[in-house]
Amino acid sequence: AHLDRIAAVDGQVHAFLHVDAEGAIAAARAVDSARARGEKLGPLAGVPIAIKDVIATKGVPTTCASKILEGWRPPYDATIMERINAAGMVMLGKTNMDEFAMGSSTEYSAYGPTRNPWDLGRIPGGSGGGSAAAVAAYEAPLAIGTDTGGSIRQPGAVTGTVGSKPTYGGTSRYGLVAFSSSLDTPGPVTRTVLDAALLHEVIGGHDPRDSTSIPAPLPAIVEAARLGATGDLSGVRIGLVREFAGEGAEPGVAAAVREAIEALVKLGAEVVEVSCPHFEYALPAYYLIAPSEASSNLARFDAVRYGLRVGDDGQHSLEEVMSLTREAGFGPEVKRRIMLGTYALSSGYYEAYYGQAQKVRTLITNDFKAAFEQVDVLVSPTTPFVAFPFGSRTSDPYQMYLADLYTIPTNLYGGPAISVPAGLSEGLPVGLQIMAPTMADDRMYRVAAALE
Ligand code: GLN
Question: I need a labelling partner for 322 at 20 to 30 A (CA). Which of 252, 330, 345, 392 fits?
Answer without folding.
Answer: 345
